[in-house]
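Forwarding these from the shared drive since the link keeps breaking.
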Amino acid sequence: MSLKMIRLPANYTQTINNIPSSVTYLDTGDSFNQSIDLIPSGITTLVLGRGFNQPVTTWPSSLVSLTLGDTYNHPLSNLPSTLQTLIIGNGFTAALSGLPNITTLIIGNSFNQSIDSLPNSITSLTLGNSFNQTITTPPTSLVTLRLGNSFNKTLGGLSSLTNLQTLVLGNAFNSAVASLPASLRTLHLGDAFNQLVNQLNEGLNTLVLGNAFNQSVDALPTTLSNLTIGNAFNQTINNLPALIFLQLGTAFNQPISQLPEGLVTLNLSINYNNTFENLPSTLQVFSFI
């Protein structure tokens, strides 16, 4: 027998000894809080659950993916150069420095430290609901950036990113979005945002505007194909790009007569009580939600 994976039960609290060297995946469960110094060096995926909060100075040398649960709150050091994915839970507040060249970093809801010294190798970065630091020098390889529900800083530090494709901003963000990277394809703006969107980059495909937004949408990028607008929007619509998907929220009650030819899906609120005419011949789905 060549054992590859071990998942310990949620109530397991004993020390871990004599794990076969063939094991590459270890999940210690939600109650384990013992030293991991004796686990095999060949483990590539390590999941330390919600109960684990031991300082670790020696990690498995072959580690590729590391998940730390919601109790863990110690500085991270000596992580192996093989590490690619690091997921840190909701209790972590320590500063991050000296990380290896990981590609994916997810940090939970207590973290609020500078990210200006993160490795440039990171392509996907998710920061939780306490993070509200100015971003000056983000990782240069970023493709996806998700910022939680406290972030409300200017985005000038993102303008130099040449690979950023997806940007998700949480429910506190209400700053200008005029200097975003030309590479951006998807932009989600949360439920506090109510700023002008007339200087977004050409190339943008998908735009989601939250439940506070009530500004004109007559100067959106011509490349936009998917537009979702939340429950405060009630502006006239005169000049939309060649959309294929349009969803408008509960406050919208303007006449509809100039929708783009090519539109496939139109979703309106069940509260809508106005005229619609000259609907595009391409329309396939027309719903009241």
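-- next protein --
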Amino acid sequence: MPSVAEVATPAWEEKLRKVTIVIARLGLAYLFFTQLFWKLPPTFGCSADFAFPVAAPAPNYWEGGSGGLCFWMGLESIYAPNDRQVLVTDMRPAGLPKIGFNIAPLAQANALLLDNLIIPNIAFFGWLIWLAEFWIFLSMLLGFLSRFGALVSIGITAQLWVGLANIPRPYEWEWAYGAIVLLSIVLLGLAPGRVFGVDGMLRRWIASSAAQGNRIAQLLMALS
């Protein structure tokens, strides 16, 4: 009886695998493409004075400020001191408790970085954020260094999840961010650019150099 390793994968399964990888890669590319235009440089969607919202009593929580990155960064800072549950499962209809995890300590560490480094230097860090998201779009669109693109996507989206998941106004559903993190993790493992992407060609070009110990080639192999 043949072992599992000896059983050939049917051609239709291999085609299905490739099609689904390409759809997931291009889907993530288009998602980040849609997010490039509401925070275009050099103002990043903020007002001319880069005004940020300020805290206000509940149920408003915040007031003032401007749009774009200034608005969302300001909200991350404003909501950071509050207890905020994530990975919430409400089992009360079944007579069981509602469970979740308080993310406040992580949110406060995130706000510490925002308040002391990123927000005071938004004119610089806004460029880094926009270029990082543009890179994710380009990486996934072309299948170029796609593992690196997936890593950047995980980092950016996880930070947004920490800062914004389940805030009350405007309500931000945690799985809007969580699903992107999970998709990015899957793509990191699948190395999607190897399927109908630039990475497939790149790896053929540099494989011999990597095998000979070229560190740059080895790094590119790992990120593609």
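The chain has one domain: 4-223. The two ends are 37 Å apart (CA to CA).

- D.
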